Amino acid sequence: MEVHQTAKSPTSDPAVIELELGLVDIFLSLCRFEWQAGYQELATALFQAEIEYGLLCPCLFLSEQSKQRLFEHFWNGDGARVGEEGALGWSTWLEKEEENRQQVMKEETADENDKGGWTGWSEPLSKQKEINLEKTSINLENVADNDVDVDVEDLEDKLETKDTEQEEDTEALMKMLGIDVNAEANNEVKDTSIWTRWSEEESSRDCNQWMPFHTKSVGPSHMDESPDKQLDEQLLGVILFEDVSEYLFSLSSGEARISLLFHFIDFFGGKIPEWMCTNNSSWTEKILSLEAVPDFLSEKLRRVNDVLTKTQTSSCGFSLEVLLGNAHDASRRIDMMKFLRNAILLCLTAFPRNHILEEAVLVAEDMFLTKMNSCSCSVTPCRGLAKGLLKNDRQDLLLCGVYARREAIFGNIDHARRVFDMALSSIESLPADLQLNAPLIYFWYAETELSNSSGNSSESLKRAIHILSCLGSGVSYNPFKCQPSSPQLLRAHQGFKERIRMLRTTWARGIINDSSTALICSAALFEELTTGWVAAVEVLDHAFSMVLPEKRSQSHQLEFLFNYYLRILQKHHKQTRLSKFLESISLGLQIYPSSPELFTALVEISHLYTVPTKLRSILDDFSNKKPSVMVWLFAVSYELIRGGSQHRIHGLFERALSNDRLRHSVLLWRCYIAYEIDIASNPSAARRVFFRAIHACPWSKKLWLDGFLKLKSVLSAKEMSDLQEVMRDKELNVRTDIYEILLQDDVGP
Predict the structure, then answer these.
(1) Which of 93, 205, 414, 620 minimizes the number of CB atoms within 10 Å of its CB?
(2) Cα–Cα distance, 641 to 309 (Å, whole number)
(3) In the chain, what is the greatest distance between 2 CA atoms, to the nearest angstrom?
(4) Whether 422 and 460 share a structural domain
(5) Exposed (0-12), middle (13-18) or buried (19+): which is 539, by Cβ within 10 Å?
(6) Count of alpha carbons within 13 Å of 631, Cβ hemisphere only?
(7) Is the per-residue pLDDT at 436 higher than 80?
(8) In the structure, what pLDDT confidence band is assigned to residue 60 with cuts at 50, 70 and 90?
């Protein structure tokens, strides 16, 4: 089946769309909560189940109850789920199941017909075979009604029997280790190093155990682990239908369906282009719920770090990434990229020609094949995948652009140019609706040329002007041969003005898409290259005037446009008055107070042209007027990199965490604890902060483990034992029993 969708027709009712988007946000909060509490397998299974149920479901007119019964048959079966190798999607899997059932029935009918004649001497069918034939003829929906998962019951019975048989041996072994079974839990382990090793093992397992197991696949498979231990871990990783059934829901709006998929990609660390405004409630919740510094924020903070360290005589600063580094994350990220690659490829059948998904899958392929180290590869890793996708759909114009940009990132600019030229030369032969995406390809191509540092910068500039002049003048595209003539440039100027004038009506109604935004950016870039940056800024100012002020704060396209506006000012900062730049950033932060791009630009420029006191005053002003996790992270990062005073940094953390909303930010608490331990070298203060943190954010298992890993010098064994007991009382998922660590010592190396 090419496209998987529900039988219910897509809705365009704004009320329904808003309701379903809110439902997706609630579901995302649930998955995030389960993940942070240590139930990673459940969070992953919830996403798998909802994507199969909501996006890849069969086109059947079913009630919600019947649909769930049918889905139970799929979930409890042995078919691969979305993200796993060989996954087909629920709809296709159901079709193949039906085909197999029909084939079995035909074969059995043929066997009966082949017998023919007098059958008096034939032995009657056994009772078991009659039962099997009867079961085979039942339709899939009835199978879903009566499907019983026997394997789970068998495994649980075996495990329970085994536990009973070994109970006496376990108690005897504990006595041999010097552990009094009847003593209180607090007195069992008196060595803090044991608890430190326990926390390291627990953290490692949290990183490695995030994929749920299928019931029928449970069983030892690795020779380097004991079968009993592996079986226990796999049983805990089995997510039954009953675990996910209460949280399944159908989606009828395209906006909610694609939102679910974008959130899924972002949740598992995929790199996805900007698709959501930073004023969106989903973005706010995402930033507030962070436990570590994500990739998109790391890139911005590294830019700030590079600018600040250039002017420092000594490298006395630190970064948030160093404070919160995790050695286990790299291997998990590689597996997640493979998981995402598989999932997005499957979902592209439901959302064909979506350039955001296509870029996400190519990036995931690159990161998986290069083991998260793209610098180690000269040939574009995703080339094979991209060519395969283009072979399946040769009219996918935006896929050509996405693929060409990946080639350029890996330094293959000539290959990228050939792909871009092929795409632009074929535009006129495409259907009219696909031709509307042309401005995106032109803009991407021009930006790629200007960012190409390996070739001749003068030639790249001429190429970019040629590309943009073709878009502006509306002539058929021809590959670059020479710089455009003056009449061609004049026609392009007039063409851009006319096309922007035609956008005024649609933009005034709030109808803004990626293609029209790319057209505005292309016009501004063309003016910057041919006339000057002042003319480019005028184009963007004119575009902003076409939109009602209240629309600007909720559109991610307009936020992208404003960021592009600031990049032009920043590029020409030597010719720009500082007051104009700061005024523009101030205006932007009033509209987008949680934008990492704006805070990055603020720190970069202010550091060059103002004294530190002025920048601190600006950051303090924004933190008081519109407090957010983002402003505090940049304020703290600035002080850490510059080696600011402890009094100042303490004040920043305390002011941030005194806010009723921000006190629930796990990331801020973890940064505060790490600062006290690693920079201020004050373990006692870190201990006090830690207990405040777990009181404010008791659901974060990572925060609890920080206490074991970072505070081992100030926490007693009794306190660590009590902490673990409280973790269990709070129903955090504790994967490692302390006796496993003790047994390692008993067995020896």
Answers:
(1) 414
(2) 7
(3) 105
(4) no
(5) buried
(6) 25
(7) yes
(8) confident
425 and 502 assigned to the same domain: no
- Among 214-218, 490-494, 655-659, 671-675, the minimum mean pLDDT is found in 214-218
Please compute the mean of the pLDDT values over residues 421-450 and round it to a whole number: 94
d(CA 460, CA 448): 9
Closest Cα to residue 297, out of 499, 599, 525?
A: 599
The sign of the dihedral angle between the CA atoms of 392, 396, 402, 403 is positive
729 part of a folded domain: no
User: Does residue 18 lie within any of the structural domains?
Assistant: yes
Query: Same domain for 458 and 414?
Result: no
Choosing from 81, 116, 143, the residue where a domain stops is 143
- For residue 567, pLDDT beyond 80: yes
Residue where a domain stops, chosen among 435, 468, 496: 435
Tokens of 488: 């061609």
Per-residue burial over 362-372, b = 16 or more CB atoms within 10 Å of its CB, e = otherwise: bbbbbbbbbeb
The verdict on 385 and 431 lying in the same domain is yes
| C-alpha distances in Å from residue 251, one per residue of 240, 267, 348, 506 | 22, 19, 17, 28
Condensed to tens digits (0 to 9), the pLDDT of residues 377-398 reads 678 999 999 999 999 999 999 9
Q: What angle do CA 61, 63, 67 make, to 5 degrees?
A: 85
Confidence of residue 542 (pLDDT cuts 50, 70, 90): very high
Average pLDDT, the chain: 85
Q: What is the pLDDT of residue 550?
A: 83
Q: How far apart are CA 66 and CA 413, in angstroms?
A: 54
Average pLDDT score over residue span 63-89: 93
Burial of 67 (0-12, 13-18, 19+ CB in 10 A): buried
The pLDDT, as a whole number, for residue 112 is: 67
- Are the C-beta atoms of residues 258 and 41 closer than 8 Å to each other? no
**HSE of 260 in the Cβ direction (CA atoms, 13 Å)?**
33
The C-alpha atoms of residue 169 and residue 54 are separated, in whole angstroms, by 49
Task: Looking at 451-577, list the stretches that DSSP marks H as alpha helix, in order from N- to C-terminal side.
Answer: 457-473, 486-508, 514-530, 533-545, 549-552, 556-571
Give 370's contacts (C-beta < 8 A, 6+ positions apart).
Answer: 376, 377, 381
Q: Are both 403 and 525 inside the same structural domain?
A: no
Alpha helix locations (H) across 592-682?
596-609, 612-625, 629-642, 646-657, 666-678
Residues 73 and 2 in one domain: yes
Structure-block tokens of residue 429: 């032969």
pLDDT, tens digit (0-9, with 9 covering 90-100), for 39-49: 999 999 999 99
User: Is 517 a member of any domain?
Assistant: yes
**Cα–Cα dist 604/634, whole Å:** 11
Task: State the Cα–Cα distance between residues 601 and 607, nearest whole angstrom.
Answer: 10
710: Cα separation from own chain's centroid: 28
3-state secondary structure of 57: coil
- Domain extent for 4: 1-108+135-143
Q: How far apart are the first and last CA of the chain?
A: 55
d(CA 73, CA 344): 24
Are 383 and 454 members of one domain?
no
The more confident residue out of 312 and 464 is 464
Q: Does the structure show a pLDDT above 80 at 228?
A: no
Which two three-digit tokens encode residue 423?
A: 């795409």
Split at pLDDT 50, 70, 90, the class of 745 is confident
Residue 377, in any domain of the structure: yes
Q: How far is CA 591 from CA 368, 516, 520, 549, 556, in A?
A: 37, 21, 20, 9, 12
Q: Which phi and psi angles does 2 have, rounded to 5°?
A: -75, -40
Give the number of domains in the chain. 3
